[in-house]
Design brief:
By secondary structure, the chain is α+β, with helices and mostly antiparallel strands. The protein is built from 20 helices and 24 strands. Strands 9, 10, 11, 12, 13, 14 and 15 form a seven-stranded mixed beta sheet that branches. InterPro entries: ANKFN1, Ankyrin_rpt-contain_sf, FN3_dom, FN3_sf, Ig-like_fold. This is ANKF1 protein.
């Protein structure tokens, strides 16, 4: 009685386990699985191998039935259960796009019953419509067949129930009758939903922006109408003509998690018109033209043809370092290390397995001098010696005043931990000059080599931006490294930080703590800084605020604590590209010596970048605690856009030239709110590179 098309489909599904034999059986299966899901989802515990093994067995036991359970959840319009199953099971495990015995997919049922929340949840998980509905007629015919067959089955069961005497078989048939009556009503509701649906309205808004010199980005929003069926896909079309004749290209978007699309491979300098239309089970709706109606692929560099600032710099530095190594490779000082491998590649587990043997030279207490400590951490645990001490080695016991230039030199050395042996040999040759600076730096290299040897690991991590000093004349340089592994180690101790802090017996007074005590007290802040300094910005165009302050031996830059490797900033928009037209506007504004735009003007109201800058400047001034009135004297840096890769770019907002850098002793009337710190400029540059 099914159409021939559906019969072929059923034959093709022979490999799939059969579904429930009746609607009642499907409901029982759904209820049973729902109970299993409710009990066992909460039993996921990554720290319990037994619980995890039992859960895995349960998953394998019920995976083949999960598809039927999902169908029942959709049919019963149980949004919570649908979301729960989509969360804990992959689309493949759920057979999300495999039709059931009626030739329907879960998304088909959701959209034909006009259940928009479930349909959207399925679409976001990657659900598709049945490919067998090639036309409106085929869908209508299939629904009519389902309704007719369900009605016929109801009539047959009703006749049997009426004519048979009450017995066990009759009771079972009454249950089947109720189940088929429910399914009959479901199919009629689906058929009515399809018949009353209409094609969708045009997308409510379509925004067009320039993504690069060869691409445009299209962002669109759902139609406003709530009367039509759920939209399941969109079509983006582009042409060089406003009439879209000829059409240059089109793309269908059926992954609706993010409603945007980037058109690639366009010709720079050519105007392209864009429009977007929506689709539902009744077909394609009318197109919506973009705003602006056309755009020209371009990039701000095309304004004067300049090349990227950093093009070839990394290669040039590598080449220069290679030349230096070549000059020194035949030096007599390198003879002892020729037989050593170029790099010691120890795994973390191997290097830490034999850590901190009793004969090590880690220090327990500090005397007057300069020291190096390495902090390795994992989650809330910190690695300590067998004596519960943070590893510390001595650099120089006669050096009680660390020069900033020596410290900054060490931070640069931290970018090449694998080259310490080579650097040490080179500095050894230069010691004949008896330079105090070289001797100090040579001792730093010796201490680094000692730390690497004792730990059995080359990479000591990132140098904390500020050494710890105490009144006893100790200076402690701190390196930080996160150990990203779930493996357990022997012969080493991972100690909770809180336990280490409470168990250590301080030998100093609270008024004058030693450098080690200060380190333990502030270790969480340092770990937070280390983690936050490795965070990356999401793609977009940002407005950054450049504020410096100078001291006798350094210049420091204002940065946010939550992202100390980036200037104070706010996001302007998600598109990082500045087009040639936008850059021309910025150049004109700078050329007439205009202040930054803080108030709207009628002739600029149509400029999207102008409006975006207005919002961003107000937000940034509030962030750094500067009255908006003062921003009228600020300027946008108009020499270039700062590009950080292909996905992040910055425009810089500068105070008046006299206030960009605060001199020593100069009062800064506008102190930022809490949540900021100042980093030495060289440290900031290193963090930016990382």
């Amino acid at each position: 009685k099914m159409t021939q098309q559906m019969r072929d489909l059923q034959l093709a599904q022979a490999r799939k386990p059969p579904g429930p034999s009746s609607p009642n059986a499907a409901k029982r299966l759904y209820r049973n699985l729902s109970g299993k899901f409710r009990v066992n989802y909460t039993s996921f515990d990554e720290g319990s191998l037994v619980g995890r093994g039992e859960k895995e067995k349960l998953r394998k036991s019920y995976l083949f039935q999960s598809n039927a359970a999902l169908f029942e959840a959709v049919e019963l319009q149980d949004l919570d259960r649908v979301q729960e199953m989509l969360k804990h099971y992959s689309p493949e495990e759920l057979d999300l796009n495999t039709p059931n015995s009626e030739g329907l997919l879960p998304l088909d049922i959701a959209i034909m019953t006009n259940n928009a929340p479930i349909a959207r949840a399925l679409l976001q998980a990657g659900a598709k419509e049945s490919p067998h509905f090639v036309s409106l007629e085929s869908r209508s015919l299939h629904l009519s067949t389902l309704v007719r067959e369900a009605e016929q089955r109801v009539n047959e069961l009703m006749a049997q129930v009426v004519n048979e005497a009450p017995n066990a078989d009759c009771s079972e048939k009454e249950k089947q009758l109720k189940a088929w009556e429910w399914r009959f009503r479901l199919y009629k509701r689906m058929k009515a939903g399809f018949e009353h649906a209409r094609v969708p309205d045009a997308p409510s808004s379509v925004h067009l922006s320039v993504a690069s010199s060869s691409s445009l980005q299209v962002t669109f929003w759902e139609p406003l109408s709530v009367n039509s069926a759920v939209v399941t896909k969109y079509k983006v079309e582009w042409s060089c003509s406003p009439t879209f004749l000829p059409l240059l290209g089109e793309a269908v978007i059926d992954k609706l998690k993010d409603l945007h699309f980037t058109i690639q491979g366009l010709v720079s300098g050519t105007a392209y018109h864009i429009r977007v239309s929506a689709y539902n089970m009744k077909g394609w709706g009318p197109p919506q033209a973009s705003v602006p109606p056309f755009a020209i692929p371009s990039n701000w560099r095309e304004y004067d043809g300049r090349a990227p600032r950093r093009r070839g710099q990394a290669e040039a530095l590598d080449h220069l370092l290679g030349q230096v190594k070549t000059v020194h490779q035949h030096c007599i000082c390198h003879e002892p290390c020729k037989n050593q491998p170029q790099s010691r590649k120890h795994s973390v587990s191997k290097s830490l397995k034999h850590l901190f043997h009793p004969g090590s030279k880690f220090l327990k207490t500090l005397k007057r001098g300069l020291y190096l400590t390495a902090i390795f951490y994992k989650d809330d645990n910190i690695l300590v010696t067998h004596e519960d001490q943070i590893p510390v080695v001595e650099i120089d016991d006669t050096y009680s005043c660390l020069l900033m230039q020596d410290f900054l030199w060490l931070t640069k050395v931290s970018c090449m931990w694998d080259e310490i042996l080579w650097l040490r040999q080179c500095v050894t040759v230069s010691q004949s000059s008896c330079s105090c600076i070289l001797q100090t730096r040579f001792k730093m290299l010796l201490a680094i080599s000692q730390m690497q040897g004792l730990l059995g690991i080359q990479d000591l991590g990132q140098v904390f931006f500020e050494p710890i000093k105490d009144k006893q004349g100790n200076i402690l340089i701190v390196t930080l490294k996160e150990v990203k592994t779930n493996q357990t180690f022997e012969s080493v101790r991972w100690v909770p930080i809180c336990k280490l802090q409470t168990s250590r017996k301080s030998v100093s007074s609270p008024e004058e703590p030693t450098a080690l005590d200060t380190l333990l007290i502030s270790v969480q802040d340092k770990l937070a800084y280390h983690q936050q300094s490795s965070h990356a910005l999401s793609a977009g165009l940002y407005l950054g605020y450049l504020k410096l302050c100078s001291a006798v031996d350094q210049i420091r830059v204002l940065v946010p604590e939550q992202l100390p490797n980036i200037l104070c900033h706010v996001k302007i928009r998600s598109n990082p590209n500045i087009s040639r037209e936008e850059w021309e506007w910025l150049q004109k504004m700078a050329g007439v010596d205009e202040p930054v735009p803080t108030e709207p003007e009628a002739d600029r109201s149509q400029n999207p970048l102008f409006q975006e800058l207005q919002v961003a400047i107000k937000e940034l001034m509030t962030l750094v605690n500067i009255p908006l009135q003062e921003a009228k004297d600020f300027r946008l840096y108009s020499q270039e856009v700062l590009d950080f890769g292909d996905q992040v770019s910055f425009l810089l907002l500068l105070p008046p030239s006299d206030d960009v850098c605060t001199a020593p002793g100069q009062n800064n009337p506008y102190t930022p709110h809490s949540g900021f710190l100042t980093l030495p400029l060289q440290i900031f540059e290193l963090g930016e590179e990382r």
